[in-house]
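Lecture 7 notes: from sequence to structure.
We start with the chain below.
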Amino acid sequence: MIELMSESTGRMLAVKTTGTLTDKDYTDVWIPALQKIIDEFEFANVLLYMDDNFKGWEMKAMWEDVKFGHKHRKDIAKIAIVGGPAWLKWGITLGEMMIDSEIKTYEPEEIQKALVWAAQTVKCACDD
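Predicted structure tokens for the same chain:
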């Protein structure tokens, strides 16, 4: 499940994930929220908080993520990833090669630090 966090502001979208993410999470919540920010501000910053119950993605959800990420690879300037299982590190490394975003990882107890970093406006890769 993806839940929009109240800390979302302006061009920064903060979401909390739990359990196994489905394509419905992407098509009903994640993609519309990100698209709205990109349409309004030209680029987005993202904070992705994975709680202790986060299990991963269904294949169809992964595919939705890949399609949207590829299409908007220059539209997301920063991604703060908070928490998540140890196996996620390989996905982050792969993601860094596929998109033009600055990515930082944080431990769950550093969520406030991650929110501050994600909320800071930077020059977007789309301006290059």
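Points to note: Strands lie at 2-4, 12-21, 44-57, 76-83, 102-106. The chain is about 40% helix and 30% strand.
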